[in-house]
């Protein structure tokens, strides 16, 4: 049976929210939250637009997502697949959400806000790595920030060694592309070229 009303939903769950769950949400980046962002090498960016939803992984050296001030974050847009799904969405709907992960930590951090796409040369040059600036950067005006408890990561055993999956047991990118393209892409060639190309094109 589908749950299709707020009344049904609240009847299933305990609706009282604890003080800790309420008070952890802020409208700015307080110093402890800044420390989490600066320690994170990986975030997931969620956007929405006329073409649909997008949830995009973003990763780089820890602190890659810059805390400009307590209400502003700057996210460089590094090399990717050039689909531009997230950026297209932001042009139509500036709302964004970020989920930060920190390897070894059960704490995740969530940020909601609104983004603009900047191609300001001075800003991009300040974000360069190995002399290579990003093509654009997202300047995110923060609206809400809060940390998520560790239950999901504890249940998943995400950072535990015995939870790690051998990549060789999974389909490779080439295998997936060959299947999805009805063999228009040769999987073996793709995997071989990617292994050589990826380390040279990170930035």
From TrEMBL:
Q: Which residues form a coiled coil?
A: none
Signal peptide as annotated in the record: none
Listed Pfam families: PNPOx_N
Task: Give the Pyridoxamine 5'-phosphate oxidase N-terminal domain ranges.
Answer: 34-149
What is the protein name given in its UniProt record? Answer: Pyridoxamine 5'-phosphate oxidase family protein
């Amino acid at each position: 049976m589908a749950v299709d009303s707020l009344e049904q939903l609240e009847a299933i769950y305990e609706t009282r929210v604890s003080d800790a769950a309420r008070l952890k949400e802020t409208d700015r980046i307080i110093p402890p939250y800044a420390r989490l962002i600066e320690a994170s090498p990986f975030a997931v960016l969620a956007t929405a637009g006329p073409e649909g939803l997008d949830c995009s992984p973003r990763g780089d050296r820890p602190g890659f997502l810059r805390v400009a001030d307590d209400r502003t974050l700057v996210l460089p847009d590094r090399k990717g697949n050039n689909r531009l799904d997230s950026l297209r969405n932001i042009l139509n709907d500036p709302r964004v959400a970020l989920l930060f992960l920190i390897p070894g930590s059960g704490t995740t951090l969530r940020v909601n806000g609104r983004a603009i796409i900047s191609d300001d040369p001075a800003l991009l040059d300040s974000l360069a790595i190995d002399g290579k600036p990003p093509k654009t950067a997202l300047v995110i005006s923060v609206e809400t920030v809060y940390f998520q408890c560790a239950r999901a990561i504890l249940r998943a055993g995400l950072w535990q060694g015995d939870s790690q999956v051998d990549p060789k047991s999974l389909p490779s990118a080439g295998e997936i592309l060959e299947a999805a393209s009805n063999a228009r892409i040769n999987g073996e060639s793709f995997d071989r070229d990617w292994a050589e190309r990826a380390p040279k094109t990170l930035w």
